Each structure stands twice: as structure tokens, then as C-alpha cells.
């Protein structure tokens, strides 16, 4: 028989014991939801996953990524067993890998159906397959849906109560003396007394995130953000200071070193700018922040950028923790108007994991 199970197609499985086997090139947690006719669980006991691998008629072998389903043992008021797949890498998304394959195997190893998801968005969790009770036994039907909020969103959608104990807000990192700049704000770089500034530094800070280990407690998961300064003459990129080139060729802009994890207090990366020595033909210096490994800003924790003067007095700051499915940010632009340096907050999300990849996305803001 043709075992390939396409969306909208069902295949009969009968009443025999079944094995639902997940094949994947990357780590995947397999789960099942036992649903009533209304599409909801009766209680939290109707969720089968690695912490609770058994429910009436459904047993999970997590190591083998296999669910063993005994139809005659499934309670009479359960109409659907829904298969849920979650990538074990908290930063991974389904389109970034070969899609998994889910086989339903009957007695004596007979392959009854094969399902491979298609058109899955950038999500970490999907529902893929329903085992449905019918008058003539059980049937399999694809039911592909993605959940940006991961496993917790998938199960709460079906009536599971997920306990999330309140946590105290974390204190802000670094001094909070300066006003927060909103996207589009444009301010002159002057001291309180009115003198123009001659030297500024951009500081970038963030933290590793806490992730739940599969078999243990939480652990730190590093994220590698990179601060860069791109130098423009008109619309042309003429120089850059970033992790692989720590100084512009004229030495006026310097990067103080690459932080690969976000570990540590205060500024994790710093870029200094000597405003007095920047050549007259330079029209703008644009600060970008990019995610080297392609982690999106949805995963970034406690992130901020700030601008300080030569005495480390904070002039402005802005948060980067609002999140979003992007891998970079245009944070601010230094530019001259009638010989006076000004700072404009940009706050624009971009797709880039390297500063040079951001150039075309910067040009509309020059």
C-alpha cells in the first residue's frame, strides 16, 4: 500500500496495537495528548511526555522516540490521540532542518502510514498527526500546526494547566541615569553645560538564558551577540569596527573585544568613538547588533545598549529585550548636522548575523 499520508487524507489502522515512531536528524521530544470530542484533555493526566510517559492506552519510550498505542485500553470518552513534536534545542526551528518522519507501524512491523510535515513556519513545536477513533477502528490523519510559544503553548491550547511560578523582576544592569531613547529620537551630543562631546562609547549588554535540561534542572545557554560600528560616506560603506577588525583603519573607532556568551555584569561589548578625529567626509556611523549563530531576539535576555561619554556618564540607553523573530538590530546612528554630532535612535529589526550583511538594510536610514 501507499503509506505516504498527505494532509487531508486518512488511513485506517484497525484495532491492533500500534507504534508511532519518529525519525529525525535532530533531537526531538515526542508527546501525545488524549483528547475528547471537543478537542480538549479531561485533565493534566491526559498528557504523555518524557516526565509522565504513561496514560491509559498510550506509553512513551522517549529514548526510542516511540509511542506504543493500545486502542482497546484507551478510555471510551477519548476520541483523538494527537502527536506533538518539540525540538530539544531551544533555539532551533523546524524549517532549519530536514523535516521529521512519523511512521505508524502495526502488527509484525507492517508500515501503515508515513507522515512528513510540509510548509511549517519558524516554530519549535508542531502537532503532526491525529489517531482518530471511528466506528471501524482507529484512523490516522495529518494535522500540522505550529506553535511559536513552544511546547507550553501547544499543551495549554488543548486544556493543560502549565504552572509558571511568579519570578521577581531582575534588577536593571548598569547605571540607569540617562533617558530611554525611542526609535526616531534625535539628540545632540552635548554635555549638560552645552559643550559638544568629543568622545563616546557604545555599550552592549545581555545575559545567557536559562533553559530546562531534558533530564536535569536549568542550565545556561549562551547567545553570541556582536556590536559593530559601520562607517559611511554618503551611502557608501568605507570602514567597520567589529569582532574580526577591532579598529577602523584610521583608529578613530575601536572595538574592545568579542564576548561569545553574554556572561558577566555590565557592558559585554564596548565600542569607542573619538568624534574629534573622524574625517570630514564621514557622514554617519551606524551601530548594529547581530546574532552570530542566528538566534533570534525572541531568545535574548536582559539585553540593552547605552551610550556614555568619556567620563562614563550615561547619555542614553534603550532595551533590546522586546524580542522578535529577527537576528539583528540597527540600534543607533551618529551623524553630523552643521558640524554638530547627533545621535539618532533607530530601533529597526533586521535579518543579519554579520555586520556586512546589514549594509543594504542600513542604506534606507542614511
From TrEMBL:
Protein name: Transport-associated protein
Cross-referenced InterPro entries: Stress/Tellurium_Resist, TerD
CDD domains per UniProt: TerD_like
Gene3D superfamilies assigned: sav2460 like domains
Annotated ranges, domain TerD: 10-156, 181-350
Organism: Nocardia camponoti
One Pfam family this sequence matches: TerD
